[in-house]
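Board notes (copied after class):
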Amino acid sequence: MPLISERFDASLIMMGRRFNWEYIDIFDKRKNQRGSKKHLSEAWYKKFLSPEINFGDLLLYEAMNSSWYRQPEVQEEDFWEEVSVTLHLYFPDLKTG
């Protein structure tokens, strides 16, 4: 099962559904997530993931990113609503996006 850092919260919800975790299990994982996120510019991503710089990582990232959306949990009708509601209820001050 691929985990993508840009969708860490959704990945935890997906794992919770797949492994029948309780919400407390999910929140413990999220609480242990590394500190502050640093948002990198689009230009940085283009440069870092360019074939000239890092072709192997680019292929791996694209494969994992595309396979993430094919996971059965992500296809379920209520998945994104559960992610949104869960984050809002348990992390009301969290800024997403």
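Comment from the instructor: The two ends are 23 Å apart (CA to CA). DSSP finds six helices and no strands in the chain.
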